UniProtKB/TrEMBL annotation:
Keyword annotations of the record: Methyltransferase, S-adenosyl-L-methionine, Transferase
Species lineage: Bacteria, Pseudomonadati, Pseudomonadota, Alphaproteobacteria, Rhodobacterales
Record protein name field: Methyltransferase
GO biological process: methylation
Keyword Kinase: no
Domain Methyltransferase small: 37-168
Amino acid sequence: MFAAEDLTCDDFIGGALRIYQPRHGYRAAMDPVLLAAACGARAGESVLELGCGAGVASLCLGRRVEGVALHGLEVQPAYADLARRNAQANGLALTVHEGDLAQMPAALRQMSFDHVIANPPYFAPQNGTAARDAGRETAQREDTPLAEWVRQGLKRLKPSGHLVLIQNADRLDDILFALHGRAGAIRILPIAARQGRDAGRVIVSSRKGAKTPLRLLAPLVLHARAYHAGDAEDLSEVAQSILRFGQNLPI
């Protein structure tokens, strides 16, 4: 488990959440906040986050929508413990299960959810240099194939439940292939750093068993300026509403 001196305490959604994160391990940034904003859960519904890490996405969702039953699955015990600590520190209920999604814990195999959300690792097994920190490497390097993340997410959904993923844009074809014949009503939201730039990320929302045609949405542009102009924050209006004020991202 992480010692106190190995952690930082960071603000999310404008300070509405205070999250403890490892100083040198995997550290959440925008992506889990965007993922939470794209989940359309309502009071009384249940949500499972696959690979919840320190709990940022689940807790952002819990802060935005009261009365949602939140569950997380995390393979690294130290991060699972940190997610529980963060939930308690922020006065939110989050049940964290420890285990590998490819070998789902028995408790989760008995459950189904209205929504499943996930931010799967972005880096392919042989892509780039391994991180020095083992926890960060596990969080960022694909071990379980992306198709298995999709398959397991769909298995844990109730009929007509929603699966929402955030992933590198170059993995979109893998996601769509994994969803084919299993889910529809697919909504693809490209995320670009600046106007005129290629999308670096995509959020993909789908509904289990649906047949509704796919829609490619207008991109979400994160920064207001067309170029980087120093360290001053220049978030676009819509990005500010999500990242600073906890608004939803209806897709």
